[in-house]
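Student: Hello, beginner here. Can you help me understand the protein record under this note? Any guidance would be welcome.
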Amino acid sequence: MPTYEYGCEACGKTWELEQRISEDPVKKCPKCGKLKAKRLISGGSFMLKGGGWYADGYGSSTKGKKSESSESKSESKSSGSSDD
């Protein structure tokens, strides 16, 4: 069910409301009770929440992190051998 953002032209209150697409927009403000509520255009309501979800559709690779740490270990070994 999509989440819509609303704003009241009378009192300035903004709020979010989950509604079915087939439902009519709300017209009554829950704060002041006037029929001045309007559905607002928001920057986007699609959000990915939780670990493991990424906006590009790919998960993080732990291989890249391991290879970086193994490279730094091999560099420290090679720099340590030059002291001999």
Q: What stands out?
A: Residues 55 and 64 are 19 Å apart (CA to CA).
